[in-house]
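chain below, 189 aa
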Amino acid sequence: MSNSLSVRNFFSIPVAQQFIESAPSSRATEQFLRFHLLPDTTALLPIQQLTEVLTIPKAQIVPIFQMPSWVMGAYNWRGEVLWMVDLGHLVGLTPWHQQANITSAHTAIVLQAPTKESTATNPKHEMLGLVVNRVEDIEWCNPDWIQSPPSSTVTPELVPFLRGYWLKSNGEMLVVIDGKAIMLSMPKQ
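prediction:
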């Protein structure tokens, strides 16, 4: 069984209250989940595109043959099949099976996107598990501050999923990924 952490309940009540009080006052800011991909990429995904953060024992992801190499397999999530994707491998970084970290579990972000059949009165979502090195924090960012990166700074595999980058005031560059673009690129059964 996995340990699950709802993105909306990422913090305990007292910390959440402090977090809300310290959030930027501008209505133009959005929340992003900050996570890390090996070897050295810190990335963001919009919170509204996410459902949960999971810790999944490695043995519970069932490999499926004849899939792209970045598809790790399927996982039984809430009684449904959740396809698990090695996000680092998908975007041209170090695949999880080549990483030196020795852990017994994967950290996964559950990405959601509305289906074509979704309506305002009957919302339907597709789900996808994105395996990442680690989840770090929640960041507030004004979408107007997201810029196009120089083409030499990103892998060609990342470009289709890239919304841009955010350069923080401390000089740290965070890659902003578009979850909808990832969902659209997935093979259809």
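Residues 167 and 173 are 5 Å apart (CA to CA). Residues 3-185 form a domain with the OB fold (Dihydrolipoamide Acetyltransferase, E2P) fold (CATH 2.40.50.180).
thats it, cya
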